[in-house]
Amino acid sequence: MTRLLVRLLLIFMPLVRWPLRAWIRTKVTPTDLDELDLDLDKPVCYVLPAASVLDWLALEAVCVARGLPRPYLAGNRPPTVRRAVVLAVPVGRSRHRTELQRIVTRTLHDHSFDVQMVPVSVFWGRNPVQETSITRILFADSDRSSRLRKLLIVAINGRNTLVHFGQPVDYHTVMGQPATPGVLVRKLVRVLRVHFRRQRAATLGPGVSRRSQLIDTLIADPEVAHAITEGARREKKNVAVLRARAREYADEIAADHSNIAIGFMLRVLTWLWNRIYDGIDVKHLPRLRSAAHDNREIIYLPSHRSHMDYLLLSYILYQEGLALPQIAAGVNLNFWPVGGLLRRCGAFYLRRSFKGDRLYTAVFRAYVETLVARGQPMKFYPEGGRSRTGRLLVPKTGMLQMTVASALSASRDAPVSVVPVYIGYDRVMEVKGYFDELSGTRVKKGETMGDLVRGSTKVLSRKYGRVFVSFGEPIELQAFADKHLPDWRARMADLSLDARPKWLQGFVDTLATEVMCGINATATLNATGLASLVLLAAPQKSVAEDEMVRTLGLLAEVARACPYSKDASAPEPDGAAILAEAEPLMRLIRAPHAWGDILTVDSRQSVLLTYTRNNVMHLFALPSLIANFFAHFEQRNEKALLADAVELYPLLASELFLRWPVDDCRDALVETVNGLISCGLLTRTEKGTLKRPKAGSDGFAALNSLARIMRESLERYAMTATLLSHNLDTGTVERARFERQCQLMAERMALLTGRNSPEFFDARLFRNHVETLVRVGLLRREGSTLHIDAELRHLAEHALRLLGSDIRQSIAHLTSLSRLEDGAPSNALT
User: Fold this and answer.
1) Residue 635: its H or E element
2) Residues 597-642: tens digit of each pLDDT
3) Quick one: residue 132, left, alpha or beta (phi over 0 = left, psi -120 to 50 = alpha)?
4) Residue 427, φ and ψ in degrees, nearest 5
5) Where does the signal peptide begin and end (predicted)?
6) Residue 624 is inside which H or E element, if any?
7) pTM of the model
8) Burial, 132: exposed, middle or buried (Cβ in 10 Å; 0-12, 13-18, 19+)?
9) What is the C-alpha to C-alpha distance for residues 770 and 726, in angstroms, rounded to an integer?
């Protein structure tokens, strides 16, 4: 009977196959099917979660198009190398159980028989389950649908079909257990069902309530109800007034998921990316997919450099078949019509400051609690706002603390993974505005529809190169808490939601730093970033083309010989190819010369390129630090060099979020020295000294270029340490005044040396230096006063020793000036 049904199905299949293929539009994940690591010399068996002819035909169409073995109905024939088969997870005593048992029995009797069992999920539409929705009843896909309902689902959602290939199941582990074929089949079925359940959750996410229901839930939250009662008592108003205000807050905050809006934005973004970018490079997706498939809630914490970040990550996740996160967006973006559209694509809005508004804080915290409790993927920016300099900003931990408190609460045991995400661009479209803000010629203001319209005409008329998105190593939150806060379970059990104890803040600060280091650890060294490093390191921002090509190749080789991390990526050491890719994006100016062209940029463009340089300069932090010891010395004692470098490392690590702990930095520095030796930029003598290449050689030029990458940072360290050591007689300094002096000193230094670089005297960098010196014990805080340790004099001497005599003289002169008093910074650089 089964054979007869199969034959009839095959006879009438053409009547269904071609109309279906003409109608459906399939998206395949993983995009790169090499992730499956299939061996085409071994039999393949595709497994569907449920028996469905339409699912089989969709799978068949994809396999034919992508060059995978074509799936045939199993019937009574097991899979062979030439004939792959498809079967469904059996329910009850169906023919699929018989087919699966036949494969299992064949394996038990013939140990040479090897089959790759590939689970395949077909999603007709990408709709999260809409609770109590009539649309769900009729058209939303489900694991078990009647034939009529399946036809309706395909008719409505066929243009948005996702075919996901899972990793082949660990078939041999199951088969290696001593048991009867029936028992082994049951175990295999359990493994497959768990896989499909997790895959469905990873692709569609948790169920989504209607927005009105969600707002009612927030208002009924005990903490919100308590805040309403307390607010009414404090303000002497009716409870109904405060409840209405809380509802307004909830309405301002909450996202409003819409499949229509998501579909619209998908088409718009596909057109937009293709128009303004040359492509999107995505790295380390397999481990993200693995974390999502392990039934973990994912919290995405990306770097923030452009407004494009808001939808870029969601676009990639949607294209890769992963559940869309809800995105925390600043309330400044909630303007018509963008605000409503972003809200329907998963954005929820938060104010820049909650200070003084207990009711708003309670409502927002309840919203975050609800998302975490449901296992909803989330995305927010740990820096709080977009970086104006290209460096990662010191993280703002308010949102992260709320999320951590909710995820580690006693009522939740489900695992949570925090995923750092690096987002980089060949060119950032807002960079001109950033530097206008830093130099004081433009005041930061809220976005409006007029700004969007005016800006879009410029944006759409230009190309911005490539975008680079890289997913860092997921941080398993519970395991991280076990390591850094062993008694967290007992502490969280007694924690009220409005409490902010020091131990929790300390833990969140540690996590935030780990996230920032994780973002930098997965950075991509792109051509424009590398070329910007070389060009801006040149004294007059001008380089001969042949020297540029050689230096680019050598620095790319250094990036590979001294890898920042296993996840960071660097281009091939082909200087000519790197320059050819970077030149049009950097807007280089060629000055023809009989001995070869000179490459330069105008003064305005050189300022803008510092943003691109700052994106990737941390990748060369240690090589550049080592190179600086040879800027004014032909050779140095290796042991003494390493000791001085270790002393300077904490400042460098704090500014750039370097991934090595201070205790491990010496080993990293030794590896860096060995890498530079392998590239021919240093040589080690038998007497324990290190020597630089001869002047005039390519290696000498590359080492000098490498040293200049960190030169400005070392100058700032020298200024900070020298100013502090200048106050050792009193032993104290007033913090605000000191930070102001540092900023003014750096600004004056920039003027004296002709640098048009507002980010050189960014006040946040000096605040960060002070915090680092406090952490390493060279400063001690006491209210607004800083107590200076005498050992700081050694740090100042070591930092100054790396600088040229002219810079040392300028710092000494500026330190002694009595005019270093508080005052408004001049705008002479503009």
Assistant:
1) strand 635-637
2) 999 998 888 888 889 999 999 999 999 999 999 988 899 999 999 9
3) left
4) -140, 135
5) none
6) helix 621-628
7) 0.90
8) exposed
9) 15
Write out the DSSP string of 536-574. HHSTTSEEEHHHHHHHHHHHHHHHHHS-S-SS-B---S-
Closest to 680 measured CA to CA, from 507, 508, 558: 558
User: What is the spatial distance between Cα 444 and Cα 496, in angstroms, rounded to a whole number?
Assistant: 37
Q: Which two tokens stand for residue 398?
A: 């308010």
Q: Are the CB atoms for 158 and 114 separated by under 8 Å?
A: no
In DSSP terms, which residues pair with 73 in a beta bridge?
86
C-alpha dihedral (331, 337, 341, 346), degrees to nearest 10: 0
Question: Which has the closest alpha carbon to 329: 319, 315, 339?
Answer: 339
Strand extents, DSSP E, 89-206: 116-124, 161-165
445-450: long-range pairs with CB below 8 Å, 24+: 446/332, 446/335, 447/332, 447/333, 447/335, 447/338, 448/335, 449/335, 449/336, 449/337, 449/338
Cβ atoms of 552 and 507 closer than 8 Å: no
CA distance 586 to 608: 9
Q: The tokens of 62 are what?
A: 């994809």
> By mean pLDDT, which of 132-141, 383-392, 398-407 is the weakest?
132-141
Please write the tens of the pLDDT for every residue from 146-202: 667 777 777 777 788 899 999 998 777 777 777 788 888 888 889 899 999 889 888
Which of 131-135, 234-238, 491-495, 631-635 is predicted with the least confidence, judged by mean pLDDT? 131-135
| Architecture of the domain whose range is 259-355+372-521 | 3-Layer(aba) Sandwich (3.40)
Would you state the structure tokens that stand for residue 827, as one six-digit string? 């705008």
Q: In terms of Cα–Cα distance, which of 211, 249, 251, 246 is closest to 232? A: 246
CA distance 551 to 705: 8
Type of residue at 40: L
pLDDT at residue 6 is higher than 60: no
| CATH class as words, domain 527-709 | mainly alpha
From the centroid of its chain, how far is CA 661?
21
Torsion of CA 399, 400, 403, 406, to 10 degrees: -110
pLDDT at 317 over 50: yes
CATH code for the domain defined by 711-816 = 1.10.10
Strand residues in 139-218 grouped as ranges (E): 161-165
DSSP structure string for 580-610: HHHHHHHT-EEE--TT--EEE--HHHHHHHH
Q: Nearest CA to 424 among 560, 303, 585?
A: 303
CB-CB contact of 435 with 758 (8 Å): yes
Helix-helix angle 527-537:603-616, to 10 degrees: 120
CB distance 619 to 705 below 8 Å: no
Alpha carbon separation from 728 to 716, 769, 787, 791 (Å, rounded): 19, 18, 9, 10
DSSP conformation class of 383: T
* Whole-number pLDDT of residue 728: 82
Residue with tokens 């860096």: 672
Mean pLDDT of the chain: 85
Using an 8 Å Cβ cutoff, are 189 and 89 in contact? yes
Helix, strand, coil percent values for the chain (each to nearest 5): 55, 10, 35
Check for a shared fold between 527-709 and 711-816. yes
What's phi and psi for 89, nearest 5 deg? -60, 120
Domain ranges of the chain: 2-202, 259-355+372-521, 527-709, 711-816
Q: Are 417 and 515 in contact (CB under 8 A)?
A: no
Phi, psi of 681 (to 5 degrees): -90, -15
385: helix, strand or coil: coil
**Residue 687's pLDDT is what?**
84
